[in-house]
Amino acid sequence: MHVSWRSRRSEVLEDRVRVLEDRVTAVTEAARVLAHGLEDLPADEPGGKQAADAARLAHNLLLAAGPTAGQPGQHAGT
């Protein structure tokens, strides 16, 4: 079966959009976790355990989303 240049380009574009959607979802979830970790903190305890735990979880969510630009396994422009 012959795959035309246009259909291959369309597949690549669809893959890139899917990756972008997954990363936006990860960033959204990380922001939600951070916001939740920072709400209702006692005024006398800035940066307490709750905030640190939220930051750690948010970081892990972003790591799980995959490599960022400039890391191995990334194509230029993604």
What's a concise summary of this model?
The chain is mostly helical and 78 residues long.
Low-confidence stretches: 70-78
Q: Helical segment tally?
A: 2
Q: State the total count of DSSP E strands.
A: 0
Largest sheet: none
- Write the element-wise H/E pattern from the N-terminal end onward: HH
Q: What is the C-alpha radius of gyration, as a whole number of Å? A: 18 Å
* Strand composition percent: under 5%
Roughly how much helix do the residues carry, as a percent range? 55-70%
Look at the structure and give the mean pLDDT: 78
By secondary-structure content and strand pairing, the structural class works out as mainly alpha
Terminal CA distance: 29 Å
Shape: rod-shaped
Can you describe this structure?
It is rod-shaped and about 60 Å long. α1 runs antiparallel to α2. The protein has a domain at 24-66. The model is unreliable at 70-78 (pLDDT under 50). The protein starts with a helix and ends in a 14-residue tail after the last helix. With 78 residues, the protein is an all-alpha fold. 64% of the residues lie in helices and 0% in strands.
